[in-house]
Design brief:
The protein has 9 helices and 7 strands, in the order αααβαβαβαβαβαββα. The chain is an alpha/beta fold. It has one domain: Rossmann fold, CATH 3.40.50. The chain has a 7-stranded mixed sheet, sandwiched between helices. β6 and β7 form a beta hairpin. α2 packs across α3. It is globular, with a radius of gyration of 17 Å. Bound molecules: S-adenosyl-L-homocysteine. S-adenosyl-L-homocysteine binds next to β2 and α6.
């Protein structure tokens, strides 16, 4: 996806990107290319692919949620997707990026510094640990390509404020919705919307799914990682 195609596809999402934002994304892409040689952060570094599969793909979350003036926590953000990109496109967002891998967190700190971004922080932690302490804090929790949906819900929902929204971004959702009713009942959430679409140009499938938090989460969630892995709710 070249620059013109990127701008045009964003317009279809009702996003008018300005020159400063575009410059920031180009710089982000350069830093990613440079640092990837040293730290192997992502499989995709060729500029047109980064713009399509990382930047544009991250922004497609606007199909399912409104992102003005909210606090957002991105679980397993990796090299910053979708959280860092959303911060650049929606400067008023307050963003927290979490990843368990230190080298990715160091990379994210470099990007924040070089792009002079404000109101964005990086947490090097496992989400299930972080969710034990930072409870009921965020309007939106996101995760792209991180873990099975059920695991993500158990980690992510405790971080949300009541009425907050959890959004998972996936390539496909397959069997992951089987047994999700139990999760809705126990975590006191309600499935809100599922949107299927295709990425432009290469036409690969994408799914966005959102849940609304109805009530405060019981302190027993999230369970320990071993239990989460072993047994569904
Ligand atoms: N969201 C990014 C990265 C996906 S790869 C993208 O779409 O490109 C998954 C990332 O999640 C990895 O960087 C890994 O370190 C992180 N991760 C997986 N499980 C995690 C957990 N329980 N806590 C924190 N980070 C986790």
């Amino acid at each position: 996806m070249n620059k013109e195609e990127f701008i045009e596809e964003l317009l279809k999402l009702n996003i008018e990107i300005n020159d400063i934002q575009l410059e920031k994304l180009e710089k982000y892409c350069e830093i990613l290319e440079r640092e990837n040689k040293l730290y192997n952060l992502t499989a995709i570094t060729e500029k047109e692919s980064v713009f399509l599969k990382h930047f544009y793909d991250s922004i497609t979350i606007v199909k399912i949620i409104d992102l003005n003036n909210e606090s957002l926590c991105d679980l397993g953000t990796g090299a910053g997707f979708p959280g860092m990109v959303l911060k650049i496109i929606f400067p008023n967002l307050k963003v927290t990026l979490i990843d368990a891998t230190l080298k990715k967190c160091n990379f994210l700190e470099k990007v924040i510094k070089e792009l002079k971004l404000e109101n964005i922080k990086v947490i090097n932690a496992r989400v299930e640990e972080y969710a034990k302490i930072e409870r009921e804090k965020y309007d939106i929790v996101t995760a792209r390509a991180v873990a099975p949906l059920k695991h993500l819900l158990e980690y992510g929902v405790p971080l949300l404020k009541v009425k907050g929204t959890f959004v998972a971004m996936k390539g496909n959702i397959g069997e992951e919705l089987n047994g999700i009713k139990n999760y809705e009942n126990k975590l006191k959430i309600k499935e809100d919307e599922i949107i299927n679409f295709k990425l432009p140009i290469e036409n690969s499938s994408r799914v966005l799914i959102s849940f609304i938090k109805l009530e405060k989460t019981d302190n027993k969630y999230p369970r320990k990682y071993n239990e989460i892995k072993k047994k569904s709710l």
